[in-house]
Amino acid sequence: MRHIPFLIFLVSCTTLVSCEKVIDIELKDAEKKYVVEAILADEPGTAMVLLSQTRNFSDNNDFEEISNATVTITDDEGIVTALRETSAGKYENGSLTGKTGKSYSLKVLINGSDFTATSTIPEKVNMDSLFITDDDLFGESKKTANVQYIDPVGLGQNYRFIQYVNGVKEKSLFIRNDDYSDGNESIVTLRTFGDEEDEMKTGDVVEVDMLCIDPAIYKYWYSFESGGASGDANSASPANPVSNIMGGAIGYFSAHTIQRKMIIVP
Question: What is the reported pTM?
Answer without folding.
Answer: 0.83
